[in-house]
Amino acid sequence: MICTIKQSVTAINGSSESVFRRRSPLQVPRSSFSPSLPASKENPKTTRLQVSRPLHVASIECFGMLRQTQKKVDKSLIRCDAYEADQSEPIENTKIVAAKRVKIGIYFATWWALNVVFNIYNKKVLNAFPYPWLTSTLSLAAGSLIMLISWATRIAEAPKTDFEFWKTLLPVAVAHTIGHVAATVSMSKVAVSFTHIIKSGEPAFSVLVSRFLLGETFPVPVYLSLIPIIGGCALAAVTELNFNMIGFMGAMISNLAFVFRNIFSKKGMKGKSVSGMNYYACLSLLSLLILTPFAIAVEGPQMWAAGWQNAISQIGPHFIWWVAAQSVFYHLYNQVSYMSLDEISPLTFSIGNTMKRISVIVSSIIIFHTPVQPVNALGAAIAILGTFLYSQSKQ
Hints:
This protein is mainly α and 395 residues long. The protein has twelve helices and six strands. Helix 3 packs antiparallel against helix 7, helix 3 packs across helix 8 and helix 8 (276-298) crosses helix 10. The longest helix has 35 residues, at 94-128. The radius of gyration is 28 Å and the shape is globular. Keywords: Chloroplast, Membrane, Plastid, Transit peptide, Transmembrane, Transmembrane helix, Transport.
């Protein structure tokens, strides 16, 4: 008898029922079937498929001949139920799939919205208080404090970690710290839109680092997708009205640092149980410990005190809210992005990241009235298109 898998099947093994999933066609050997297909107790006309060992299938629709009677089996007489191994209800149906898509959509919308809000408040703070090292430190401190309170009050379950976990997290945290500070330095010198245009070139850094340092090879379309990425970023940089070398280099260093962060994370976190929200929380805590002494050495309390008084005198009490908002929203948008990564594939995540940059670039241009030349906008569009093609070519 041939069984073509479609959704699910209740497989009987002796007195117990075992249910398994699979999504490919399967031919079940004749030897695995019992000599007959006995009628079920619930309905004498309904035949239940009985096997001598569990079928590792998701569902079946049976056609064939009964060996003893040589009569065709009516498809309507075969009962094919779909149950989870630990549930009594049918497995994923259309409503569940639709609900999951809505959930992912909410994650994406929240991620993009929080990122836009963070970039707006971050730029406002940096315009009035040009100390990116302290600003970066406050962002990590706010996120760390939020998670420590969440763990202490048991709003979120604290992760179970050991020395090996923190050891493998260390290089990830170093790269994350460098990337975060470099991006903040960039935004303190140039427009938010320009920083994100340059940061859209991150896939080019990823391919080049993987190719020349790790020896990985990629399909030809991946390499071809780098042409519009590099060309678009270069065109946008050349035509930027407020070009600043420190701002440009900060965005480039951020790209490189985040590439290494992703590589270290992929290599070091395999098989680890901490993921999603708690993983980013641990990353923030370790990055905060790394960044704080460097922030004190580079800028220092005296510069911070003078800058703070100047910002308060110019902006007023609203400046405190700006600092708090940019710090909290930085943690929230990163936290939601890691929660999104738990629900989707890396490819979908990279596409979402590309769309996020578009929303940040457009919103920052509108809010800060950033002057944009047509050629500059064209370069940005080409770079974003190249990033999208890169995501597609890696499927």
